[in-house]
């Protein structure tokens, strides 16, 4: 697990097709404690994915800094994993190869991949190609790939979107179980306040543009309370202006 | 359980349909070729001139050249030249194409060179290679490869420019590194472009190899064709041409198509 601090002095999107240049972030700061499950709640188009890409190092075109705390136990650079909005599996590699590839190409990687596939309940599909799977199954493979490297920091960009509510609930359950076995700091982007209340230890609501934090709430409820009245109260508080 | 069985059944059904269609197409191809043979036979009979020998005369010429061992030896030599220049052109052309497709700056600088090279007549390249490097085997193979490299590069550049950014980012986040990225992310996306380049490449390569042999080599199919031309021996010319066409077709069926099927087995 690892904590982090993001400081964005400024992040702009260049003008496209006659539209004006847009400032996405200005003087934005976010600190995440080690082991937190931070739910990032914001309307679409505000730059949530951009924030994750900046943290992941995929987007370096901004003014500011991202500092990840050193990994515990002297492991050196902290390990970062990302569950994208679409599963982003390699269609020409089997499910098992997709999960193994972040670790390498040896037998050890394959063994770890199979164990991870077992944990997400997809061991039987190990030899299948991703396009043969349903979207829910593909998302579980992506989850297995995200966890197989035992990340210190896990970025999740609406990873359960476009599933039906029952399917999304099963995946949230699976995520909770995986995190119990492989603890990690999580930044989870969503637009669904129910999902935020159900999973998070902290919820940050953004508004803008440029994006700023309008709500920052710590949650300390058990699973039953999250689904009952206290959870409803939290959602009402989140929605309040 | 029932559902998956039904799905399996449907899949087998389409598979059978696919094999049946393939077989039907093969039969039709055979019919088409036989029709051509019949027309050729008739035309030869009608014209009755040594400049248009019939199929049986060509078969006799083929048999004669095979018995002396000249035809198989020439085919082997020419095939070796085709393979050598084809492989060189594929490797260099693919490297250049991928580089240009990935880097817009390099593409702006070297793209015009590629267009130049693409439009340079094969004959000019062959003459220049022989003049600069002498009438050697290396010059011959270089000449053919240079003729083919721009085609491969242009095709692969198109492929490299259309690579998925999403998968690129995925490979970056999971720290695949350059080698694993190339092998598992980039090359599989390029395989249709490799197949297209290989297919058009093989045909082009062997045609140019014949010209190279005619101009500056003392063996191979091109050289034998020149000899036959000087003797006005059309039957031998056709025998060599048909024999090599069959060889190239066999390469296509035995190598390129199976490889393509293997590369595409993940598709639904």
UniProtKB/TrEMBL annotation, chain B:
The keyword Protein biosynthesis does not apply. Residues 75-255 form the ABC transmembrane type-1 domain. The keyword Transmembrane applies. It is a multi-pass membrane protein. Pfam families: BPD_transp_1. It is found in: Cell membrane. It comes from the Bacteria. CDD domains: TM_PBP2. Its main location: membrane. Coiled coil: none annotated. The chain crosses the membrane at residues 26-48, 68-101, 113-133, 237-259. Belongs to the binding-protein-dependent transport system permease family. This is ABC transporter permease.
């Amino acid at each position: 697990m690892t904590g982090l601090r993001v400081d964005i002095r400024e992040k702009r999107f260049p003008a496209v097709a006659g539209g004006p240049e847009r400032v996405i972030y200005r003087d934005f700061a976010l600190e995440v404690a080690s082991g937190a499950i931070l739910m990032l709640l914001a309307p679409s188009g505000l730059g949530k994915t951009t924030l994750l890409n900046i943290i992941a190092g995929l987007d370096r075109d901004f003014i500011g800094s991202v500092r990840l705390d050193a990994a515990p136990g002297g492991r050196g650079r902290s390990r970062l994993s990302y569950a994208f909005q679409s599963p982003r599996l390699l269609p020409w590699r089997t499910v098992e190869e997709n999960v193994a590839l972040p670790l390498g190409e040896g037998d050890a990687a394959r063994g770890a991949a199979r164990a991870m596939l077992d944990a997400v309940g997809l061991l039987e599909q190990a030899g299948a190609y991703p396009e043969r799977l349903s979207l829910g199954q593909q998302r579980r493979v992506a989850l297995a790939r995200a966890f197989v490297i035992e990340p210190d920091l896990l970025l999740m960009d609406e990873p359960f979107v476009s599933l039906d509510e029952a399917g999304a609930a099963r995946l949230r359950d699976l995520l909770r179980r995986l995190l119990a076995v492989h603890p990690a700091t999580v930044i989870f982007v969503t637009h669904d306040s129910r999902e935020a209340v159900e999973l998070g230890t902290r919820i940050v609501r953004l508004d803008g543009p440029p994006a700023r934090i309008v709500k920052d709430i710590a949650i300390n409820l058990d699973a039953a309370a999250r689904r009952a009245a206290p959870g409803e109260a939290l959602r009402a508080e989140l929605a309040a202006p | 359980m029932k559902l998956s069985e039904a799905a399996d059944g449907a899949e087998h059904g389409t598979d059978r349909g696919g094999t049946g269609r393939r077989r039907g197409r093969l039969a039709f191809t055979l019919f088409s070729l036989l029709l051509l043979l019949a027309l050729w036979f008739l035309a030869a009979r009608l014209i009755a001139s040594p400049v248009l020998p019939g199929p049986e005369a060509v078969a006799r010429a083929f048999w004669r050249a095979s018995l002396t061992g000249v035809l198989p030896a020439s085919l082997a030599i020419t095939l070796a030249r085709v393979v050598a220049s084809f492989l060189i052109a594929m490797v260099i052309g693919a490297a250049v194409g991928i580089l240009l497709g990935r880097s817009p700056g390099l593409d702006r600088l070297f793209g015009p060179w590629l267009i130049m090279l693409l439009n340079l007549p094969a004959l000019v390249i062959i003459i220049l290679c022989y003049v600069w490097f002498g009438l050697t085997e290396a010059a011959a193979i270089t000449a053919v490869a240079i003729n083919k490299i721009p085609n491969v590069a242009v095709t692969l550049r198109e492929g490299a420019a259309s690579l998925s950014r999403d998968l690129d980012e995925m490979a970056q986040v999971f720290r695949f590194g350059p080698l694993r990225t190339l092998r598992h992310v980039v090359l599989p996306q390029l395989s249709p472009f490799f197949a297209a380049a290989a297919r058009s490449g093989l045909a082009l390569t062997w045609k140019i190899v014949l010209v190279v042999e005619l101009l500056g080599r003392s063996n191979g199919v091109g050289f034998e064709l020149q000899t036959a031309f000087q003797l006005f021996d059309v039957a031998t010319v056709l025998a060599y041409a048909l024999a090599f066409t069959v060889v190239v077709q066999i390469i296509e069926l035995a190598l390129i198509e199976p490889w393509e099927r293997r590369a595409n087995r993940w598709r639904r």
